[in-house]
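User: I'm new to structure prediction. If I give you an amino acid sequence, what do you actually give back? Let's try with this one:
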Amino acid sequence: MSSEEPSYIYVFKPKLMGPAHEFVLSKDTLDWSLGARSGRISYPMIKHIRLGYKPTNLANSRFIAEIWSINSPKLSVQSVSSRSMFDVIDQGNDYVRFVRELHRRVESSRADCVYDSGFPAWRWWPAVLVAVTTVALVAYIIIQALTGAHYVVAGGITLIGAWFLWQIWNIVLRNRPRRYDPQNLPADILPATSE
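Assistant: Good question. You get back a string of structure tokens that encode the predicted 3D arrangement of the chain. For your 195 residues, that looks like this:
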């Protein structure tokens, strides 16, 4: 890396009442500060990065990068920041720039890093099973309602079931476990940017 390489800073607040989390990509290290705790990780010490899509009630487009290293605790970087008790700021553009730059610096340091996206397989397969079981149960209830001539109930359950299925399918599909190339990050586990 060039000695002229600029630092890059990304800051977000995971909780309204909690401290801001700050991450700085400097020439040779990822410096982090989580309130009173802080540390420094040289890029070759980063051993695992996982990108994922994890929406919440307030942030339907929340994406997370999890970073594991040899000498620090697991770090989580979110694409949204709490602004009030019921509102978050979408920092998608800044988050994507930070994540891309992190990958570039880790790869250029020749770190022996594993790049994963989505849920771990042990968590994804049960999520698929729950989603499929839920769809089957909703379909059964709709058929029973139609058989019993309860058309309003069947229509309501169909609408709610379709919305639920869309939400669950979106999470399950985006978070399927897979490896990725750090030079070609999967678009489905990154926020859409306006750049």
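You can read the tokens as a compact description of the fold. Here is one thing that stands out. The radius of gyration is 20 Å.
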